[in-house]
Design goal:
192 residues; alpha+beta; 2 domains; two-stranded antiparallel ribbon; two-stranded parallel ribbon
């Protein structure tokens, strides 16, 4: 741990092994040292509100988001019991529940397991039943956000990923990135 003023800073390291799959042994990495002190290795870390695990599964992140959203469903129930109209309930849902479920959705939703997606979609479906109006699914929100992100990257020539968007000779469609793994295929760029 490093001492800075009165605060103690203890760096943690999460080693991401993107070639890991169940049944295969982990590569034992040597310990990381900074200023002759060994950095503690952790299996998961929270960065900018997203839980990242060493095996790059999103179950921990999904469970955290689901728990937060279900806690907020209670307040949606209370507002419904107070006989508020559906537009106000929808506004409350979008501001408190949907914003939690879709935080950094372009990062994790593409490689999320089907069970995790089902868990999150259950919360959306429950909110739709409470409000009494249909709500957009998380997949629809994900696709809209990816499309918007891609549009902003294409319009900004200074963006580091701008070179990945190359038009085909027809001038209407973009070239696809070749992907050998499902993880790359389901990530942000190949879906466009």
């Amino acid at each position: 741990c490093l001492l800075e003023g009165t605060e103690t800073l203890c760096p943690l390291a999460t080693i991401l092994n993107h070639r890991w799959w169940p049944g295969r042994n982990f590569v034992d990495h040597p310990p990381l040292t900074i200023d002759s002190s060994t950095v503690e290795r952790v299996s998961s870390t929270k960065f900018l509100g997203v839980h990242i695990t060493e095996d790059l599964t999103w179950t921990t992140n999904t469970m955290s988001l689901s728990k937060k959203a279900q806690q907020r469903l209670h307040f949606l129930h209370r507002l419904k019991r107070a006989s508020l109209p559906p537009p106000i309930l929808t506004t409350f849902y979008r501001g408190t529940i949907e914003s939690v479920l879709t935080s950094c959705i372009t990062v994790w939703y593409g490689n999320c397991s089907a069970a995790d997606r089902k868990t999150l979609q259950w919360t959306v479906n429950t909110a739709a039943k409470i409000i009494g109006t249909p709500l957009p699914s998380l997949l629809d929100i994900f696709l809209v956000r990816c499309s918007g992100k891609a549009t902003s990257i294409v319009k900004d020539p200074t963006h580091p990923s701008h070179h990945l968007f190359q038009l085909l000779p027809s001038g209407r469609h973009y070239r696809s990135i070749r992907a050998r793994s499902a993880r790359l295929l389901n990530s942000f760029f190949p879906q466009l």
